Amino acid sequence: MTGPRLTPLAQSLPATVPFVGPETQERARGAGFAARLGANENGFGPSPRAIAAMTEAAVEIWKYGDPENHDLRQALARHHGVPAECIVIGEGIDGLLGYLVRLLIGPGDAVVTSDGAYPTFNYHVAGFGGVLHTVPYCGDHEDPVALFAKAAEVGARLVYLANPDNPMGSWHDGAAIRAALDALPPDTLLVLDEAYIECAPQGTQTDLPADDPRLIRFRTFSKAYGMAGARVGYGIAAPELIAAFNKVRNHFGMNRAAQAGALAALQDQDWLAHVQACIATARDCIAAIARDNGLTPLPSATNFVTLDCGADGAFAKAVLDGLVARGIFVRMPFAAPQNRCIRISCAPEPELDLLARHLPDALAEARAAQQG
Amino acid sequence: MTGPRLTPLAQSLPATVPFVGPETQERARGAGFAARLGANENGFGPSPRAIAAMTEAAVEIWKYGDPENHDLRQALARHHGVPAECIVIGEGIDGLLGYLVRLLIGPGDAVVTSDGAYPTFNYHVAGFGGVLHTVPYCGDHEDPVALFAKAAEVGARLVYLANPDNPMGSWHDGAAIRAALDALPPDTLLVLDEAYIECAPQGTQTDLPADDPRLIRFRTFSKAYGMAGARVGYGIAAPELIAAFNKVRNHFGMNRAAQAGALAALQDQDWLAHVQACIATARDCIAAIARDNGLTPLPSATNFVTLDCGADGAFAKAVLDGLVARGIFVRMPFAAPQNRCIRISCAPEPELDLLARHLPDALAEARAAQQG
């Protein structure tokens, strides 16, 4: 082709997409999903105060958002009891991961993650020419000790750990991560993805000082706060690292209504508590549905439950396909042996009723195919 | 500092911000602005149908947006009469410029723009290690012939041209740009920023095929469509280049309500026509206010009017400071000799009345300081 040449790095990148959205599948099926249980969205929804704030902001959408995200940043600082200089706000954790990788990773730099952990992180690492090294899960848990040992072995600049974990729903005590950090190489930054932390038991947080230079924590309004479509995430780290985001971020990238909505959501902790209770109930409900069908629900500290289908990845994929064909959007882990599972997002009763209604048929179909 | 090391490129970047937001100035002043005329926002606002769509989407904000932006992309394709494969949607033109530069510019690659043109483009070029070469404005117009000649001279990968231009409001006939393109080097991509095109006279568009490999056009919902805070921009280019954005973009980066709002805004062309008329009236009004005060309004094909204050940059800055001190947010060009001007965004009558009321005092103050 004549015309512009991509950089050698860009040329080498595949045009892969980390995730296929449910709308793409709906268009392919020619029908909408009746239950949206695949992306760990939170169908209990955001605080009514957040909805009101976004509605109010809609008439002022002709104004750019505040590029400093001042009000939300200050409120988050108060909420977490940390200096505002330790907080960066961005277009979801996905956007912030992109900025972080750009700041720290150049061609050939080593990065460590778990085999089967968050694909969008891997997408960014590849996108800046980093070299990914993986360690296996230990049981259904990410393995901090092995991750940090691998980081030392390969001289990693970044190591990724989600606590609680996606896609398995498992978690570690914050104390265990704190202890493992002693073995983190001095040149390695821990990317601690806490997207699901509001769904986890007490003690899951690390309780390290915000300015600990060994790690950056990421949080989001997409999960427990029920605002995935708003794209508001934030990072907590030492001021030097937080300030570096200003070198590369899209300063005017935040949606103004999303800024207002996230602030209102943060200020309605009663609603968060209500949603946390709904999530706990939904987890029990999903677990019961799984057991009724002979599947094994894994313990979860998230707003989803991962169900062990008891066979291999092909069988789990058949179960998933059967659910999708019946209008139930679900996803599953990408890597073996986690891909023996399917992953079900917590949702209000009507959606879980649909799961309960259709799972037996999906399973029967998958079992028939397995035997056939 | 111990802890993570930035890449050498990131280390070398200043923590500059392309623009200081009005909210930052309001916090510094300890008072809000009474008129917001500095960021070329569109106070006539978005279509009521867009507001309704965003309001409706607020209750569904728990869902991620469609990562393919399918509905908006298809609607834009129909609107422009181009294949959907020629359109990429992103987090404002700013976000798309970042992706484009990332795809095409590596350390040391040459890029050409006008001295005093869009700083955010320059920010991205620096951010990926590109080397910026500038040519002066010709009168108050960007100079396509000189830009493309400089691109040939330095072997540029990208050359930036805004038509209509910001910050001067000037424009070229599309035919003139088409003619100049014959001299564009074969390895150079023209970045044609058409953020203000809906405010321009017939004939300002280039009317080149969407798949012309020599250029990418950028459009936005931030200006004439009145949705700056939503962050919705798009690019039109050859399918090969458009597809490359999928290698690096934040696939789930679009706000779901913004997607819905932009679609509704596009479908309300009557509202756009109404706003275009309001903008034309406001331009005349700003020009009249300027003349009443002995300033020279420059011709404008945008939703702002650049006022020649008739002296140097220091004088224009004094006028600007006088307006800001009186609660009127305005900005001015960064580079000489354009910085003899201040730039006033079109706005509803009450804001322009405030301008009319306070400009005489701001000017008197600036003149007194000049003589003192």
Label the structural class of chain A. alpha/beta
Biggest sheet strand line-up of chain A? 2-8-7-6-5-3-4
Query: Element order, helices and strands of chain A?
Result: HHEHHEHEHEHEHEEEHHHEEHEEH
CATH C-level label of the largest domain in chain A: Alpha Beta
| Low-pLDDT runs of chain A | none
Oligomer description: homodimer
**Mean pLDDT across all amino acids of chain A:** 97
| Helical stretch tally of chain A | 13
Shape of chain A: globular
Please give a structural write-up.
- The structure is a homodimer of 372-residue chains.
- Chain A has 372 residues and is α/β, with parallel strands linked by helices.
- Helices cover 41% and strands 13% of the residues of chain A.
- Chain A is built from 13 helices and twelve strands.
- Chain A has a seven-stranded mixed β-sheet with strand order 2-8-7-6-5-3-4, with helices on both faces.
- In chain A, a hairpin with a 6-residue loop joins strand 9 (296-297) and strand 10 (304-308).
- The model of chain A has no long low-confidence stretch (mean pLDDT 97).
